[in-house]
UniProtKB/TrEMBL annotation:
Transmembrane regions listed in the UniProt entry: none
PANTHER family hit by this protein: TRIOSEPHOSPHATE ISOMERASE
Taxonomic path: Bacteria, Bacillati, Actinomycetota, Actinomycetes, Streptosporangiales
Catalytic activity: D-glyceraldehyde 3-phosphate = dihydroxyacetone phosphate
Family label: Belongs to the triosephosphate isomerase family.
Function: Involved in the gluconeogenesis. Catalyzes stereospecifically the conversion of dihydroxyacetone phosphate (DHAP) to D-glyceraldehyde-3-phosphate (G3P).
Pfam families on file: TIM
Protein name: Triosephosphate isomerase
GO cellular component, one term: cytosol
Amino acid sequence: KTARKPLIAGNWKLHNNHFEAIALVQKLAFALNDGDFDAVEVVVLPPFTSLRSVQTLVDGDKLKIGYGAQDVSQHEKGAYTGEISGAMLAKLGCSYVLAGHSERRQYHNEDDAVVNAKVRAAFARDITPILCLGEGLEVRKAGEQVAHTLAQLDGALKDVTEEQARRLVVAYEPVWAIGTGEVATPADAQEVCAALRARLGELYSPETAQETRILYGGSVKSDNIAGIMAQGDVDGALVGGASLKAEEFVKLVRFGE
Ligand code: PEP
């Protein structure tokens, strides 16, 4: 685990216009810029319309904050009204993009084949996909969370090469814990994250599995992050609600201290 740098990514969802985005990133940078936040990679995922503003800030002031988008088109170009391509995100300097967030799966009917196409579209432009996986409440109640989440992993990684998989970030996000205040226990998170790592070892190699960062997401806050980070196979967090307030997010990035 020590070789994997912790990653905390803030998924802003449908919040913050470009003006508000600038204010939030400035606050984050100010609070984090006292030298010791090198231990954790901090990433923000604003709406598309705020990316240019975030890029300008991060580049202009050489901020140690990474950024990316919340979605990418599976298509490269063409008659796809409303879509944003991987090339467009790369041009804006995005390092990361979410793929398969449960809200995209639920409200935009993204299935494993679409998620796979998006993962490959990101890799094609050297953008690291943060591949989101996780079970709903019914599956959890049936005790099928591991099988369900591994099947999603298999589907999303079809035709993804080992070289690409080494750069992949996986986010285990049980749907019942997203935005509900219902956080999985650290042991719940560890169970599925360990199973995901073992499967990466089978799909690719144990070395690759050891390099891949696996995050937990679902109602992570500054007061529960420490227990989650203490788990051997959890390398960080994907954070929604708690990433919208600078003070709370900074506390979270410092693992609650
Ligand atoms: C998310 O959007 O990925 C998420 C985990 O949201 P929240 O932290 O609000 O549960």
